[in-house]
Amino acid sequence: MKPGSSISRYHFAIWLSFLFLVTNTVSRIVLTVMATQKNTLSFIDLGFSFISGVVYDLATLSYLLIPVLLWLTVIPLRWRHNKIWIIAGRIFSLVTAYALVVLAVSEWVFWEEFESRFNFIAVDYLVYTNEVIGNIQESYPLLTWLSLSALTSVILVVAINRLSFLAQWGHTPRRYMLSGLIIVQLLVNVALSGQAKDLRENRYANELAGSGLYSLFYAFNNNELNYRHFYPTENDISAASVVREQLATPEAQFVSTQPNDIQRNIQHAGTERRLNVVLISVESLSADYLGKFGNAKGLTPNLDRLADSGMLFTRLYATGNRTVRGLEALSLAVPPTPGQSIVRRPDNESLFSLASVFNSKGYDSSFLYGGYGTFDNMNYFFAHNGYNVKDRLELNSNQITHENIWGVADEDLYAMALREFDETSQKGKPFFAHIMTTSNHRPYTFPENRIDLPTGSRQAAVKYTDWAIGHFIKQASEHSWYKDTVFVIVADHCSSSAGKTDLPAERYHIPLIVWSPAHIPAQKVVRLMSQIDVAPTLLGLLNFSYKSNFMGTDVFATPDGPQRAFIATYQGLGYMTSDRLVILRPRKEPEVQQLDKAFAKTAKSDDQLIKEAIAWYQFSSDAFSQGRMKLSH
């Protein structure tokens, strides 16, 4: 088709390109404003994010244009005069504009929650649409937003259709258009990746430098990462020796001299304390919400009282930023592996778990959850690793005071737990229960007249969570099994893990309280420890002797031993000591950060620390993939 002809062959492709770039640019501006509310971005950061962002937008657009250009190339121009074609084209234009506007709004919502572009969390949410859509409906004025998005889409379509130069560009000859697309695609596939943009020290600048749709598909294709393919490695024997050396505690004897075998016989002198154990992993309970860690808003009076009369661990760090990471660490006592949590990975059955130890002692072990445990594969994982699973489906309508899309109110979950404990106790068996709460999660709703704050905010949800725990302990005190029960209260992760750096250590700091006044003396434990150390430390407090395959350690068995914690995203793997943090990233050199009181970052190399970090993550990744975490191993 020659320029000047009445019909522009590639008009829609040019129109789509212009619309895509406009919506993505506006979205980047909005996200930049949101980012600067919590973090300062330099002019260099801003310039980099917008230049790199345009590159990623063009790369994403090139993928979207492949089917569009092929279709417009092969369809005869005479078809364009058909009224059906014209009407269908207008409808398709509106639908396309609406999809891009909704995508932009979705990015803003996702950023508000996670301070990130779409990532592996967004991929997971595409699987569990019921919970996610329900959460959005309960948290935001969805109908209003969708209506405004529709109006915005109409305005965009009308406005862009008035730009006559787009039709002129659409007269580009086919050979130029297709060859240009091929060249761009070659450049994109050779030069770009999801991490090529991560060139600034400021994490927010790197996030803004990407494109939401590109990040989403990159996360989809990289949701599970083979450690050996993407991360630095050490000699297997050398890596194993590092792990074995740190696991060589006084009460543990290795059962084998094989380098990769870490099974130990844990032997404690004296009588085992066969106490009931209730482990409560609280949704998103950052340490800085507690008064014991300096919060002056009075959100956690019950937890603060329990901390005063119980054992408070002040330097515990979560392994990840999602519930499944916390569940993995608390149940398996293993460092996080890159990509998906073990809770969601194939071949995760019959693993050595905290429940398997309790079961070997004659306990009844259970996992109790107030939501639907199919979410994140929780029911399957726990049911196949020694736990009796009870979730929202166990409750009748008359047993529910309040519920939202994530599950019933914490008080209803605790009431279910009390019934379960009574039933087990009547059988004459001790019990171990892992309770996973949901109330401290958006949309932050709970029963009325429980606290002095209205529903709908994170602070209110924290205060209700605290109230529910206090109410649960009070109710439990009226039951016969109470006097022989240890309560363990810990967070699954912090409320947010976003910060200026990839792995801001302060955003992984969580509380741990072990409370049983008749059996556990009140004290403050200031030793640095990881979430993977909770299980062996708890078993040590019970004076249990058992065969262990845990990679965590009893912190009381080695008071002067190595102090370290593991913190991670799905790609960034952190190994933290009291003053330094090693970060391992795919296809990149290890980085060492110096941690001061404000967790500021300065570069400092440490070959020995890097070796330890690599050894732990390499060993734990191999242990799962090679089946060495299995009970039968």
Task: Please give a structural write-up.
There is one protein chain. With 633 residues, this protein is of the alpha/beta class. The protein has two domains: 11-221, no CATH class; 230-625, 3-Layer(aba) Sandwich (Alkaline Phosphatase, subunit A). 44% of the residues lie in helices and 12% in strands. It contains 20 helices and 18 strands. The strands form four sheets. Strands 3, 4, 5, 6, 9, 10, 11, 12 and 13 form a nine-stranded mixed β-sheet that branches. The chain has a four-stranded antiparallel β-sheet with strand order 15-16-17-18, with helices on one face. It has a three-stranded antiparallel β-sheet with strand order 1-2-14, with no helix packed on it. It is globular and about 90 Å long.
Supply database-style keywords.
single chain, 633 residues, alpha/beta, Alkaline Phosphatase, subunit A, 2 domains, 9-stranded mixed sheet, 4-stranded antiparallel sheet, 20 helices, 44% helix, globular, disordered N terminus, cell membrane, transmembrane, transmembrane helix, LtaS-like, transferase activity
